[in-house]
Amino acid sequence: MSLPRVDLPADARPDTLAVREGLAPSVWGEHSEALFLTSSFVHPDAASAARRFANEEDAFVYSRFSNPTVAMFERRLAALEGTADCIATSSGMSAILLLVLALLKSGDHIVCSQSVFGSTIKLLQEFGRFGIATSFVSQTDPAAWRAALRPETRLLFAETPSNPLTEVCDIAALARIARDGGALLVVDNCFCSPALQRPVQFGADIVMHSGTKFLDGQGRVIAGALCASEELVRTKFVPMQRSAGLSLSPFNAWVVLKGLETLSVRMQAQSARALELARWLEAQPAVERVYHPGLESHPQHALAMKQQHGCGGAVLSLVVRGARAGAFAVIDGARICSNTANLGDTKTTITHPASTSHGRLSEQQRQAAGITQGMIRLSVGLEDVEDLKADLLRGLATPS
Ligand SMILES: *Cc1c(COP(=O)(O)O)cnc(C)c1O
């Protein structure tokens, strides 16, 4: 929609856009963006309503597919990702649902990393019932992606870094493979957020988000989005959203919109703490291995630094001695870190992937994915890093 943009210089930089991008304020001149908690909008006369329903005039009509607060969130996120447009959805998963509903049909094929978010794998497998097949391939081997291409391949779907092993995929290489195969590359940018990584810079066509994680940043609401070209958003995603109703509520949009204002400083501060913690953990005798893209020991360290603005991100994993008992001792010893599966919060969270997020896999599948019983995942928040070290040391020191 060509609605009035807030007055900003055309060349404003991302940190400025994160705080200021949006619609012009209402007649009341509010400074903080308004929360338009309304399901529908009133038309001045019958002819205007007719034009608006026929898409001949830009105006807000009904919050299932158009709302000013949601539009502000969409514009701000698009500005940060460097895409022309964006559509907000009720959750990260519904963003993937909208993606597939809008772009694919029976007989089409998807190539996806085998290391993506567990519910993403489940959802893509569900589409098999509707004749859309998915091949799951190595996160780190572009040749495997190329080999999986079929004439009917429409999408390549990647997530980087992966959870919990923080494996990094080469977005530029996957973008070339997608182009050669006549397919679109979709990147789930949940773990880095646009503050660290802009997949379209490396050739991705669509950026998918769970706004629930770092974009909100304080663990308050569920939200999602797809960032893409204006053509894809206007001709594919918005019409399907209008029919399917996977809409983001204005209230949740407002929370995430305000979260974007602090995204960059949070990502820098949380990544710095994560790297300090990762280096410290590598030196602990009770720790067998640490996974964080900022560590020189990380297999794709150089690629990660190139793709992620020199930042490893705020998520790390470690493998402790003593397998499951050793991992449980650390989790149960923690008095600051929260034992919860959410991530991207200013509060540090600690989880045992093998029995929670990856608990539905067989032990054999987990072994293949490299998720061992001694593995712990941390999403590092904004607490004092010395307090976090002491918190982990309580369980690490426990003989097991
Ligand atoms: C949480 C998450 C999702 C799903 O998002 P929801 O908002 O929970 O639906 C998708 N991808 C990644 C990487 C996630 O961490």
Task: Describe the structure in your own words.
There is one protein chain. With 400 residues, the protein is of the alpha/beta class. The chain has two domains: 14-260, Aspartate Aminotransferase, domain 2 (3-Layer(aba) Sandwich), CATH 3.40.640.10; 263-396, Aspartate Aminotransferase, domain 1 (Alpha-Beta Complex). Helices cover 38% and strands 14% of the residues. The protein is built from 15 helices and eleven strands. A seven-stranded mixed β-sheet has the order 1-7-6-5-4-2-3, with helices on both faces. Strands 8-9-11-10 form a four-stranded antiparallel β-sheet. Helix 8 links the parallel strand 5 and strand 6. It is globular. The model has no long low-confidence stretch (mean pLDDT 95). Pyridoxal-5'-phosphate is lined by residues 91-93, 117, 119-120, 159, 188, 190, 210, 212-213, 222, 224.
